[in-house]
Every structure is written in C-alpha cells, then in structure tokens.
Specification:
Layout (H helix, E strand, L loop, with lengths): L2 H10 L6 H27 L7 H22 L3 H15 L6 H6 L5
Helix pairs in contact: 1-3, 2-3
Length: 109
C-alpha cells in the first residue's frame, strides 16, 4: 500500500480530539505498541520461543498507525518524511553503514 494513501485512511479511523490530545494519543500508542513489539522479540531472543513474525507485523502496523496519527495532527506527510530520512541516510552512509561513517555524520556537515 502507498504510504500516503495509508496515512489518509488511518486518519478516518482516528478518534477526533484537539491537537494536544492527538499528540498524546499518538505518542502513548507508540510507546505501548513498542513495548508489545519488544515483548515479542524478547520471547524469541531471551526465552528461545519461535519468532512470531505475524505478531511482529501486527505490532509494526500498529506503530505505523500511531505515527500516522501524529503526522496527520501536525500536517506532516509520511511519504515526505520517509524520503527525507532515506536522503539523510544515503548522505551519511554513501556506500553502506559503517561505524566510522556513523561517527562522521556526513549529513550534518
């Protein structure tokens, strides 16, 4: 699915609140879902359970929805945010990730 379309559809399922409420809802939702994502990974890494990829996908989708809540509340286009992020990372790591490139932060010069 196109991320811009996703963002538009996500807004239709969001509870209507004022800006502070939307921001708080989005941030608390991300925190909650990140904990659930972390629990799924913990069960695999620490307790040796089979990795529940279906649950990982669900939690990632939930985090994405809450990111869309914050983006919609503030007028941020997720597609643009994604493009800008990749451009920044390509400048920082022109060939591939390296610890030296991470320390040099070429995107900040």
């Amino acid at each position: 699915m196109n991320i811009f379309i996703y963002q538009q559809l996500a807004e239709k399922t969001e509870k209507q609140m004022d800006l502070p409420g939307r921001l708080q809802h989005g941030m608390l939702g991300i925190i909650t879902e990140a904990g659930e994502l972390g629990d799924t990974i913990k069960k695999h890494v620490i307790y040796g359970q089979e990795l529940d990829v279906a649950n990982l996908q669900e939690e990632i989708g939930d985090i994405l929805w809450y990111l869309a809540v914050i983006a919609n509340a503030t007028g941020i286009n997720l597609s643009r945010a994604a493009s800008d992020n990749i451009a920044k990372l390509q400048k920082r790591y022109p060939e591939a990730y390296s610890d030296a490139a991470a320390a040099a932060r070429l995107d900040k010069q």
